[in-house]
Structure prediction request, 109 residues.
Amino acid sequence: MLMIPGIMQGGEMMERAIEPGAGAPRLSERDTRILVFEREWWRHGGAKEGAIRSLFGLGVTEYFQVLNVLLDSEAALAYDPMLVKRLRRMRDARQRGREARQLGLAPAR
Prediction:
């Protein structure tokens, strides 16, 4: 069993146990931490952007680029199917909205 550091909660680092499966796709520690963060980021006090910088040492744009690649991976889907499918749906809805606005089919925000 592998203990992966999660996110800060109440000043303590939470950990999540991962049982490596035989032949299952593997996530890096950073990718696992990103998925845990996406599932629980609302528990952080303050803005998501600040938490991203402090936990991962990444700029917001770089973080979302990494997250989008991660969402397309089979390893992420195997790790947390409900979360990955929800985040994919949200990403796809935003993309459809952008395309509709570019084509003039939807009002601009």
